[in-house]
Amino acid sequence: MLANSCRGGVRFLTIKGPKISTNSITRVPHRVPPSNRFNVPALTFQFFSTSRGPAVSTSIGRRAYATSKKTPSRAGRPRSVGRSTTTKKKAAPKTKGGRKTRKSTKAKKSKRAAPKKKAQVKRAVTPEQKKAAEEKKSRAATRNLKQAALKTPKALPSTAWGMVLQEMAKEAHSLPSKEAAARYKSLTPLELEHYTHLANQNKTTNEVKYKQWVQSHTPDQIRLANNARAVLKRRSATGKYPPITDDRKVKRPLPPYILFSMERQRTGDFKNMAITETSKLIGSEWKGLKEDDKKKFKDIFSADQKRYDHEYKTVFNRDPKRSQSPRAAAAA
């Protein structure tokens, strides 16, 4: 095997130490690096004896017969003992401007044609369906208004008739209005005074309870509730939603024309006249009034406007909106 790998290049073996049998020697060659695989200046083999003698080191000189610098063909190359199976590293990609160019590994997504949506055929809305949708929308709006209008606390009966009706309803577990009316008409003065006294006590209790309920809400909540109540009152026309009385409400300033009208009515010149005729005469007088005479009422309005702005900001923590009605603007 040694002669085949070196092609007869080994002429002499120098062995130091006692003579040993070559059959009992195990030859372990060093692996030659891949970069220096063919032009090897020296090969060193270590022989390890299986007998009791020491290891034997043998050196093989450079090939004496190799006179050509050409690399031998693949068929004539010697097989290197313990040849590495590692593959060569690929060359690094070329750089542009000192930066390595990397190939994008993202696969191109194939563009798929989106499925065509089927055209939806709009069904014609019947008048009944349209009317039902409008009614549903109106009910939802009314529900929201009732929620914003706030529910006032239930009041106790504050009249003698109410006290009699409540007493008979408790006895009969119903509302016997006819019997209660007959009973109220047959009351003696002493009984009537008794029911009136109880009604006055209930009236005082109702006022205290109502004021506490109003104070439990912010002035802005009461303002929004009154706006909702005004809309509900116009829709129902039953007077079921009276405005909430709030002492914290800021009183608006009166326009100059209203101040002039109030002053003229206090004189008593229009006492026996209808309201429509009175309004026409006062309106014509205001239009014919000189600017110097109007200035008196305009100054009162300006002073009251400053008072209103200060109180409004104190109560609602914001400045009031400057919105003037067309009628007030024309009157001014």
The count of β-strands is 5
Q: What is the distance, rounded to the nearest whole angstrom, between the alpha carbons of the first and last residues?
A: 128 Å
Global Rg: 58 Å
Structural class: mainly alpha
Q: What's the shape?
A: extended
Mean pLDDT: 74
Estimate the helix proportion, in percent: 40-55%
Please report the number of helical segments: 10
**Low-pLDDT stretches:** 1-16, 42-51, 55-69
Return the string of H and E elements. HEEEEEHHHHHHHHH
DSSP strand content: 5-15%
Biggest sheet features: 3 strands, antiparallel
For the largest beta sheet, what order do the strands appear in spatially?
Answer: 1-2-3
Secondary structure layout:
Elements lengths: L1 H5 L18 E5 L13 E7 L6 E5 L34 E2 L2 E2 L26 H23 L10 H13 L4 H9 L3 H27 L3 H18 L19 H11 L8 H13 L3 H26 L9 H6 L1
Helix pairs in contact: 2-6, 3-4, 3-5, 7-8, 7-9
